[in-house]
Design goal:
By secondary structure, the protein is of the alpha/beta class. The protein contains eleven helices and twelve strands. 47% of the residues lie in helices and 17% in strands. The N terminus is likely disordered.
Length: 386
């Protein structure tokens, strides 16, 4: 479906836009009548006034898609009227077409352009040309209004979905916690009275309760991103990395892994963001190993770009199982998993959380990987100084 068809479809689905309005300003009544009759077939609402003062009063009360403005008028000419119109916030982006019978000297057209007029048409008017030009601006106005309404609906829908996810996840925590607790009491309290199969069932309940608790926690974290303002601080990324390593001590010891990082920068960013990124990416690098070699994970950073476009690029590289390029985009989507839970535990939310958070902070995240050749996850953050 084309963009235009999508917009029309959106309007038909409840995003209807009010008819655009045209304002015609001319001190001669015969010109007002003729221009109104010419433009009436375009289907817009048309307002006509015979002075600049009346036009200024009207734009304070109504919104217009386009203004056709005569230059030669008594008391206040078209140029002065246009300048005053453009001081109104609602008129900043409204196109103005000057219609005039005065000299065709270049400086008049230049003055019109400096005011912000989109066109300068001379009388006698070519009716077909004027209609086609006005129609273009009416169509652009309608499309812009549809896009604005669609964006408003999307924002509202996203906010409702995030609130729904937060409330559901928050309310689910307690029953899942109780399920886990009572399954544990059952397994421990009557262990001698249960056979191996029954004990297996109790353990299965506990394992799945833990799995649901993990998923709830991840959903809550994901839904919180963007709900609160991101606060920037001076962050020592090396200290953040060092502070996370005790969390990985058991798995590093179990797999005899080598996890290194040296010379990570001090930058101005969100400390929460940096912890989320490194915790997820280093954790995944340790998790997705097949046991055929000693895991080696390295974290590095370098500054790229110049002046106001400078940014920091962080790389988290591993020698794990790798990822087929066909799945490189899919893994950043919520709840997308490439492996069964039995093979590799996880909820499929971590990477989507990383992408959502890092984009909120003005950066992005990407991947270079092939099956069996390890992976390099790269994320960027704007250089905001220290």
């Amino acid at each position: 479906m084309s963009a235009m068809n999508s917009l029309r479809g959106a309007a038909q689905d409840g995003l209807g836009v009010a008819k655009p309005k045209i304002l015609i300003v001319d001190d001669r009544w015969e010109n007002l009548l003729a221009t109104e009759a010419l433009l009436k077939p375009l289907g817009a609402d048309i307002a006509t006034v015979d002075s600049g003062e009346k036009a200024l009063d009207l734009v304070l009360k109504e919104d217009f898609a386009i203004v056709l403005l005569d230059v030669q008028m008594p008391v206040m000419d078209g140029f002065e009227t246009a300048r005053l119109m453009k001081t109104r916030p609602s008129m900043q982006n409204v196109p103005i077409i000057f219609v005039t019978a005065i000299s065709k000297e270049d400086h008049f057209a230049t003055e019109a352009a400096e005011i912000g007029a989109v066109d300068y048409i001379f009388k006698p008017i070519n009716s077909d040309i004027l209609k086609s030009k006005v129609k273009v601006y009416l169509d652009l106005y309608t499309q812009r209004q549809q896009i604005l309404q669609l964006n408003a609906h999307l924002r509202q829908s996203n906010e409702e979905l995030e609130r729904f996810a937060y409330v559901c996840s928050h309310d689910m925590q307690e029953p899942v916690r109780m399920m886990n607790a009572y399954a544990g009491l059952l397994a421990e309290g009557v262990a001698g009275q249960l056979d191996e199969t029954a004990l297996g069932y109790a353990e299965y309940i506990r394992d799945n309760a833990v799995r649901v608790q993990t998923m709830i926690r991840d959903i809550l974290n994901f839904s919180r991103i963007g709900r609160e303002e991101v606060k920037l601080e001076t962050v020592d990324c090396q200290k953040v990395f060092d502070g996370l390593m005790p969390d990985f001590a058991d798995i590093v010891a179990e797999k005899q892994a080598r996890v290194t990082a040296a010379g990570l920068p001090v930058i101005r960013t969100s400390p929460t963001l940096m912890r989320v990124l490194l915790q997820n990416l280093v954790g995944n690098a340790l998790k997705f190993q097949d046991g055929s070699r000693t895991p080696e994970i390295s974290v590095s950073a370098r500054k790229e770009g110049k002046a106001e476009k400078a940014f920091w690029r962080f790389d988290v590289a591993d020698n794990g199982i790798g990822i087929d390029p066909v799945f490189h985009e899919r893994i950043f989507q919520v709840f997308q998993r490439l492996h069964s839970f039995d093979d590799y535990i996880g909820t499929g939310i971590g990477l989507s959380t990383c992408r959502k958070f890092v984009r909120l902070c003005g950066g992005d995240i990407s991947l270079r990987s092939k099956p069996g050749e390890g992976s390099v996850f790269s994320f960027t953050l704007p250089d905001k100084g220290v």
